[in-house]
Amino acid sequence: MERYAGIDLASEEHRLCLVDVEGRQLEQRRIGHDEQGLTALCRRLIELGVERVALERPDGIVVERLLDAGLVVVAVHPNQLAANRDRYRSGGGKSDGFDAYVLAELARTDMHRLRTLKADSDETKALRALTRTRDDLVGARVALCNQLRAQLDAFWPGAGRIFSDLDSPIALAFLERYPSPADTHGLGAKRLAGFLARHGYSGRRSATELLQRLRQAPQGRAAELETEARRAAVLALVAALKPLVEQIKLVTSQIAGAVRVHPDGPIFLSLFRDPKSVVTAAELLAEIGDRRERYPTRDALAADAGMAPVAVESGKRKVACFRYACDKRLRDAVACLADASRKHNPWAHTVYRNARARGHDHPHAIRILGRAWLRVIWRIWQDGNTYDPSLHGNLKRLTTTGG
User: What's 96's domain CATH number?
Assistant: First the structure.
């Protein structure tokens, strides 16, 4: 007898539901999120000969354990689960057990709408862990940098303007040495030049120009106690930012090494003109993965990357809406590639310029160009070839016609 399972995931305890081929509920139980519970779960599903297991997420320890056990696992988007609850209830009730039942039913009846999960290679999962960690660290750096800038704007705006990037090593070193206006007493061009030399400043501004920036900014009016408090806040934020910046640099170097030795690394690195552009290439590879069957068509890849609009039709009304349900990290990586390529690639520049000429704003034009790039990416990814501009048909036609 065919059996299907649905698992409603939680942090400490999961809910399992089993149904038979006719949709009758056979079993429902709680599964602890520990080694004993997960081992018993996999053993029980194998003993019962479960055909498919449905969950709400495509990754995580539970998914990996089920895949390692040889079970067929399908991912159900939370929006799909929410939309299907009313198929199996007349009231508005909701529970973990009911969600597990709906997942099991979807595994039984809706496999033509669901995607079977296939584990990526160890190299791809390692690269994904690095790129997502870096993304989280960059988010933390931006948040801390914004807090630091807000503190400086409140009592010492000049310190936030002297260097271009507030989170650069030279700017953080300056704020660590001069965290308040009072600490700059006696700071002249000669002393600042010595400070810049000691910290290896490689900017184009002279010490005199930087000092002029510092002194031309508005002067704060914070009293003594407030200045001391804000000085302490600046030192605390700088102390938090400095190791964060160093760790981002370290993770970036690890990403560069990992993407260059990955079997699919040359495919994605070939999309960028600058060989140092490894972060976006690694993000594209990590989010797309190495399972070619995951995206059987280029439209499936464009939809998952958020570069394809959602059509809304009703009677004579037909509009294209922004796609919110997608892989946000993949969407950001494709948008980064599109925005960078439009500045040097004549084909990308033409696609972007034509989109703007049709009245689309910058983000919409970037998505149009991103979808065009995904057609190229999908083809070379499926074939296992690197990007060759001489084989890019639209680019060759544009170059031949002098466009």
Answer: 3.30.420.10
CA distance linking residue 351 with residue 348, whole number of Å: 5
Question: pTM to 2 decimals?
Answer: 0.90
Backbone angles phi, psi at 185, to 5 degrees: -60, 125
- The CA distances from residue 331 to 142, 283, 284, 328, 344, in Å, are 20, 10, 9, 5, 21
Q: In this structure, is the dihedral angle defined by the CA atoms of residues 285, 287, 288 and 293, taken in order, positive or negative? A: positive
* 159 and 241 fall within a common domain: yes
Residues in the chain: 403
324 CB-side CA count, 13 A: 2
**Which pLDDT score is estimated for 403?**
55
Strand positions, DSSP E, 93-162: 115-116
> Are 236 and 272 within one domain?
no
Coil vs helix vs strand at 182:
helix
CA dist 373 and 300 (Å) reads 14
DSSP-assigned letter for residue 120: P
Tell me which residue of 78, 69, 74 sits closest to 58, measured CA to CA.
74
> Considering its fold, how many domains does the chain have in total?
3
How far apart are the C-alpha atoms of 145 and 133, rounded to whole Å?
18
pLDDT at 89: 84
The SS3 of residue 376 is helix
- Residue range of the domain that includes 273: 267-400
As a whole number of angstroms, the distance between CA 211 and CA 187 comes to 9
Shared domain for 236 and 141, answered yes or no, is yes
Q: By C-alpha distance, which of 373, 388, 395 is closest to 298? A: 373
Cβ atoms of 57 and 34 closer than 8 Å:
no
What digits encode the pLDDT tens for the residues 136-176? 999 999 999 999 999 999 999 999 999 999 999 999 999 99
Q: Are residues 226 and 306 in the same domain?
A: no
pLDDT at 204: 85
Which residues in the chain come in under a pLDDT of 50?
Answer: none
